[in-house]
Structures are given as C-alpha cells and as structure tokens.
Amino acid sequence: MTAMPSVCGAQVVESFLDAHRAHDVERMVELCDENARFRSVPFEISRRQRVVRGSGHVSTIGKLLWTGLINAFPDLTNEVTGIISGKDGQVAAEVVISGTQAQDWVPVRSRGRSFRSPHLLVFHVNELGKIDNITSYSDDAAVRQQLGAAELD
To answer: What is the pLDDT along the chain (153 residues), one digit of tens a residue?
Structure first.
C-alpha cells in the first residue's frame, strides 16, 4: 500500500502547471523526483534511421519536449479545466494547451498558425510530495492539422 503524500498531490500538480504557464522548465523539473518517468502517448517523430518517442524520464525527454514546445510556441499556455486527486497520490488534470507557432517544431514547419488542444495529464505524487510519473494523452494529429502540417511536412 502506498503511503499518502505529505502534501496535497493536487497542489503539487497545480504548481507544476503554473510553472508550465510561466515557461519555467527548471521549476517543472524541480517539482519532480530525480528519477521521474515521463510519457507522451501520441508523440512520435520518424527520422531517416530511427523513431523518437515521447517516453523516458522527466530530466531527459520531458525537459527536451517542454523546452522545444516553449521555444516554438512563445505564447504557449495551459488552461486547467479540472483536477481530480486520489488518496494514493494519483492526480488527473484536464488542461487545454494552446499557442501560436513562431518557429519550426520538428517535424512541423512554422506557418505562424495557432493550436488549441485538450490534454489529459495523469500524475503520481510520491510520499515526499514529488511527482514521480507523468503520462500525457492528447490528439497529436489534430494539433498538426491546426498547424497546417501535411502528413509528411
């Protein structure tokens, strides 16, 4: 049985989302355990010799994806539409992420278009009040379509 976090998991997640809105990637990472896992379910980039998937650790793939998004979408933001937390440290956050593309975001060339996309983020906050797992669910195809990206851009 998992011990209940010493702080409210929903508050930790709200702080994480506040840091995201402030484009403070370092703060986002600080709110996570050093071995925290990150997975963006639909994220995948096909390269000539390999496929890059959005799965790994917060300190590597998470930080890389968040920084890349913020650089490509300087007005990137999130609107929290709901947060539900359980006694076991699980926290689900419904957010709408939006932004206007100002530079290329691999593999989507910038056309200066905007996107608005609902996301479901599932967090686990450990007994020390640190996020140790994040899973993001979104409709990547709809985002690409809003940005005017063809299947092979």
So the answer is: 454 444 699 999 999 999 999 999 999 999 999 999 999 886 544 445 444 456 789 998 899 889 999 999 999 999 999 999 998 999 999 999 999 999 998 778 999 999 999 999 999 999 999 999 999 999 988 998 999 986 554
Give me the residue spans of the domains in the chain. Answer: 9-146
The three-point CA angle 142-146-151 to 5° equals: 65
Protein fold of 9-146: Nuclear Transport Factor 2; Chain: A, (3.10.450)
pTM recorded for the entire structure: 0.86
Helix (H) or strand (E) holding 1, with range, is none
Distance of alpha carbon 74 from alpha carbon 13, whole angstroms: 22
Tokens of 50: 């390999």
In DSSP notation, 96-142 reads EEEEE--S-BTTBPP-S-EEEEEEEEEEEE-TTS-EEEEEEEE-HHH
C-beta atoms surrounding 19 within 10 Å: 18
